[in-house]
From TrEMBL:
A single GO molecular function term of this UniProt record: protein histidine phosphatase activity
GO CC terms, sorted: cytoplasm
InterPro entries: His_Pase_superF_clade-1, His_PPase_superfam, SixA
Protein name: Phosphohistidine phosphatase, SixA
Organism: Phytopseudomonas seleniipraecipitans
Length: 154
């Protein structure tokens, strides 16, 4: 199984609430750079946080790659989600290759849990960072980190 983790691109600092913060132009460019690593990946589904900046990030990926289907919005990918509870949700899903679009500190903690088996070693996920985890089974500590890419915009 392959699980791609993507943190949303840079978002505006101010909005009525954290949930409605939108991507900046810089953030959109970060996402466009990161999604190049996904070209050719046979993604079966994109699961995304309900927050606006994550939705915009996932839509950019889907549209740029010409992927069919709708984004699957789930409540267990928000910044304050518990990685262990989200892992349990992930284990109920089917598919060999999926993309999760979410936020820090959650996405780094989930990646650390999957690779190291604990949350004390989170993956360093900057805005629009992309990680690929691969393993025979989706279990804490049994996934290996194959790719960790950060956008490099000047």
């Amino acid at each position: 199984m392959k699980v791609w983790l993507l943190r949303h691109g840079q978002a505006h600092a101010e909005a009525r609430s954290d949930q409605v913060r939108e991507l900046t132009d810089y953030g959109r460019n970060e996402v466009r750079q990161s999604l190049e690593h996904l070209r050719g990946a046979p993604l079966e589904a994109i699961y995304v946080s309900p927050y606006v900046r994550a939705q915009q990030t996932a839509a950019l990926v889907r549209d740029a790659l010409g992927l069919p289907g709708e984004l699957r919005t789930v409540s267990w990918l928000t910044p304050e989600s518990d990685p262990r509870e989200s892992l349990a949700e992930l284990q109920r899903l089917s598919g060999d290759e999926i993309l999760l679009v979410s936020h820090q500190p959650f996405i780094g903690a989930l990646g650390g849990l999957l690779v190291h088996g604990n949350r004390q070693q989170p993956l360093p996920m900057h805005t629009a960072s992309l990680a690929l985890l691969e393993g025979e089974e989706l279990l804490a500590g049994l996934m290996s980190l194959q790719v960790l890419a950060h956008p490099d915009l000047q």
